Every structure is written in structure tokens, then in C-alpha cells.
């Protein structure tokens, strides 16, 4: 009967390179004996949800799907803001409620379950609705999914901090990211090489798989051995709003971290503008939005869908584990390196677009630039997540996460202004601004504390 446990220990040690499979740092003593099991459950649950995220990507997959269903540009244009801001903005108000739960794994599991149901609803919409009715229904379901995701985001970091050793948290999330990227790479490859047709039916099946993965993740997460945590401080959201926002002023490191993270939203916002540089010399895409390109239904964009998913997934697959290990050693340095990679990639794109724009229409250059940017994006995501968990005391993790994510949600909503700038002054200026933001973030990150030491 000990064989499964032994195999679990071996898998844990293989992934973490720990001599002692139960080394515990900054977690309750009761969680030490369950460390390998909790570590593997985190990887499996997170890999399932990350895979689902990739399979319903609003920026690419849902945008294409709604365009084919006949939804208007107005609705399609709301997909990314609703998904991103909707997952972040509610967190300031939900963190106190979550703190009242002694075991927060149930919050995460419920959030994952609701996300699975929402995507199942999207599949039904694909077969029963068309035009703006389909678009609006899917947008509403995406909004509900985003709110459910916000509960998962706040509760996850707290559960991670209580169940996984400090020295292996980045490895757990990084490994999950690598597994998820591999699954999305498989899907993107099937599309890119025309092994499966790009159709509404195909994407409906894809959404069904994503729905199932979210439901499986919910079931797995309930099996974590999580000790009951402190529930004090769980007050009404309105009464606690000022106190939580005051954390930004009271903690200079938190303020600097949020500033760095806000500047690095450039890595998330830049890809659509980079894509426009690849078609500007042929179609004057300097004055087009990503939604317009999506709705055009041209052969070029249809083939780009698979290639873009493939480039993004390959970047995650090849770098997530490495970023996770680097973040475990120094999340500050991981932030600096990823910010510099993003800055150099974006600056190179802007310079090439000014001096040799035709190069960006070739088959190889733009995919390489997008690949590099996605590597930086993966680094930012893993490093900021690990840094926030490790910098915060266990009694403040949920509040720090909620404050940080709410501020970033507002920043992402304001990110729509970059589209206005692109319309007025062209995509080159916007990409240049993104590059500057990345370099400034790298400079500011130097002053962050090395919270792993």
C-alpha cells in the first residue's frame, strides 16, 4: 500500500530537486506530511484550468467563434475587457468574504465548477443561437465566468501558501503551465496543419472539452489537505474597502510591486498591435482593430488563428517550468528579466516597422517576435504570482491579492485607450509605448525586495 506514496514522493522530488521530499517552509506543520500529495494535486488542478483557459482564449478563439456566429464588432470587442477586468475588479470586495472560510479550497473548487458550467452554456449557444443573440449570451456567460474566476484567484494564492512549501510554489505553477501549454500546442497544431477543420462545430467540441476540464479540476482540488486558517478580519466589503486600499500606501513594497505589475500589462496588451504590423503594408492595418480583422473572415486570418495559438503555447511550454524555478530562487530577478525581454522585443518590433516594415510580412519574423513576447508574458505571470505570495504574511495574502488585482483590473479597462491612440497615431507609437513601459518596469523592479531570501 505504500507504493503509490513512494511513487508520489519520487515524482515530487524529480520536479523539485529536493533531497528531502518533505522540506517545509512557511506552511503549517500539519501540511508537511501531505506535501508531495498536495503538490501534485495543485499541478493537476491548475494544469486542467490553464488548459481550459487556452482552449477558450477570448482574444482569439471566442472572437473567431462569435464572428462566425454573426455577432457584431461591438460585442466581440468587449470579450477581452470583460474577461480580464471581470476576473480582477470584484476581488477587492470578495476577499473579506473568502477570509471567513476556514478552508478556502472549497471556494476555488466552486469557482472552477461555475466556470465549467458557463462554458457548457456557451456550447449550447453555439448550436441554438446566431447573430447578436449568440454574441450577447456568450458575453454574459463570459462575465459570469470571469467573476467565478475572481473567487478562484483570491482563494488560490491563500491555499497555495498553506499547502505547498515556499521553495516549490513557483515550480508547481510553472509545471502546470507547461502541461497546459502542451495540450494547447496539440490543439493549435491540429488547426495549423489542417488535421482538423476550423469550424464552429470543431470549436464547440473544444469548448466542451474545456468545460469538462474545469469540472475535473474542481473535483481534484477538494482532495487537497488544507488546514483551517484564520478567519478574523472578515468584515463587510464596504466597511473594509478603505483599510484594504490603505495597504498600498502603508506598504511601500506593495505599492512598488503593483506599479511594476501595472506597467507590465504591456505584455498582455501588445500582441494584437504586433499582429497589425504584419499586415499594415498590405492592408493599411495601421488603422484597423483586431476585431475588424477577425470579422473580415479572410483566409490569412483563418490560418493565423492556429499559428498564433501555436506560438503562444510553445512559448508557455518552453519557458513556464524555467520561469517557475527562477521565481522560486528570486521572483524579483524573474520580473526584471521578463520585463527586459518584453522591452527589447517590443522595441525591435517598433524599429523594424519604421525602417523595414516589409520584413514583418514575412512568414518567420513576426511569429518569432510574438514567441519572444509570450515568453516574457509567461515570466511576468509566474514571477508576479510567486512574488505576491512570498512577500505577504499569511494573514494578509488574500487582501494583498485582492488589492493588487483590483488595481490591475482598472488598468486593463483603461488599456482600451491604447486602441484610440493606435487609430489616431498608428500602431508603431503604441508598441513603442509598450516597450517604454516594460523598460521602466524593469528599472523599478530592481528596488523590490528579494522576498525568497
TrEMBL record:
Keyword terms: Membrane, Transmembrane, Transmembrane helix
Per its UniProt record, what Gene3D superfamilies does this chain match? MFS general substrate transporter like domains
Q: Name one GO molecular function term.
A: transmembrane transporter activity
Q: Which residues cross the membrane?
A: 106-130, 136-156, 176-196, 202-221, 262-281, 301-322, 334-352, 358-377, 398-418, 424-446
Q: Where does the UniProt annotation place the signal sequence?
A: none
Q: What is this protein called?
A: MFS-type transporter involved in bile tolerance (Atg22 family)
Species of the source: Pleionea mediterranea
Amino acid at each position: 500500500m505504500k507504493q503509490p506514496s513512494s511513487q508520489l514522493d519520487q515524482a515530487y522530488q524529480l520536479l523539485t530537486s529536493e533531497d528531502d521530499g518533505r522540506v517545509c517552509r512557511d506552511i503549517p506543520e500539519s501540511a508537511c506530511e501531505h506535501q508531495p500529495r498536495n503538490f501534485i494535486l495543485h499541478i493537476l488542478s491548475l494544469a486542467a484550468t490553464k488548459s481550459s483557459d487556452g482552449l477558450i482564449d477570448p482574444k482569439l478563439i471566442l472572437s473567431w467563434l462569435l464572428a462566425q456566429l454573426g455577432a457584431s464588432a461591438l460585442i466581440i470587442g468587449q470579450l477581452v475587457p470583460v474577461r480580464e477586468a471581470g476576473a480582477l475588479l470584484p476581488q477587492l470586495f470578495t476577499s473579506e468574504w473568502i477570509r471567513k472560510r476556514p478552508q478556502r479550497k472549497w471556494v476555488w473548487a466552486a469557482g472552477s465548477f461555475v466556470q465549467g458550467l458557463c462554458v457548457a452554456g456557451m456550447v449550447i449557444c453555439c448550436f441554438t443561437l446566431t447573430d447578436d443573440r449568440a454574441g450577447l449570451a456568450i458575453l454574459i456567460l463570459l462575465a459570469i465566468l470571469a467573476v467565478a474566476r475572481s473567487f478562484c484567484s483570491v482563494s488560490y494564492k491563500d491555499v497555495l501558501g498553506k499547502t505547498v512549501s515556499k521553495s516549490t510554489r513557483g515550480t508547481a505553477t510553472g509545471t502546470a503551465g507547461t502541461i497546459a501549454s502542451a495540450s494547447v500546442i496539440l490543439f493549435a497544431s491540429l488547426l495549423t496543419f489542417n488535421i482538423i477543420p476550423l469550424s464552429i462545430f470543431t470549436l464547440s467540441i473544444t469548448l466542451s472539452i474545456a468545460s469538462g476540464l474545469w469540472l475535473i479540476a474542481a473535483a481534484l482540488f477538494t482532495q487537497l489537505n488544507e488546514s483551517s486558517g484564520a478567519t478574523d478580519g472578515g468584515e463587510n466589503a464596504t466597511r473594509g474597502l478603505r483599510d484594504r486600499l490603505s495597504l498600498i500606501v502603508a506598504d511601500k513594497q506593495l505599492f512598488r510591486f503593483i506599479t511594476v505589475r501595472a506597467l507590465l500589462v504591456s505584455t498582455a496588451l501588445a500582441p494584437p498591435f504586433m499582429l497589425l504590423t504584419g499586415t499594415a503594408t498590405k492592408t493599411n492595418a495601421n488603422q484597423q482593430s483586431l476585431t475588424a480583422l477577425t470579422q473580415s473572415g479572410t483566409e490569412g486570418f483563418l490560418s493565423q488563428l492556429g499559428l498564433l495559438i501555436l506560438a503562444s503555447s510553445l512559448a508557455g511550454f518552453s519557458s513556464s517550468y524555467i520561469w517557475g524555478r527562477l521565481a522560486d530562487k528570486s521572483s524579483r530577478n524573474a520580473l526584471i528579466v521578463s520585463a527586459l525581454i518584453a522591452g527589447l522585443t517590443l522595441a525591435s518590433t517598433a524599429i523594424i516597422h519604421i525602417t523595414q516594415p516589409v520584413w514583418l510580412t514575412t512568414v518567420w519574423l513576426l511569429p518569432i517576435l510574438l514567441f519572444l513576447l509570450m515568453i516574457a508574458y509567461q515570466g511576468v505571470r509566474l514571477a508576479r504570482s510567486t512574488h505576491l505570495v512570498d512577500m505577504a504574511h499569511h494573514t494578509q495574502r488574500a487582501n494583498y491579492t485582492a488589492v493588487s488585482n483590483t488595481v490591475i483590473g482598472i488598468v486593463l479597462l483603461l488599456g482600451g485607450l491604447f486602441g484610440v491612440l493606435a487609430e489616431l497615431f498608428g500602431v508603431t507609437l503604441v508598441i513603442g509605448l509598450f516597450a517604454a513601459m516594460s523598460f521602466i518596469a524593469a528599472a523599478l523592479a530592481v528596488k523590490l525586495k528579494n522576498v525568497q531570501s
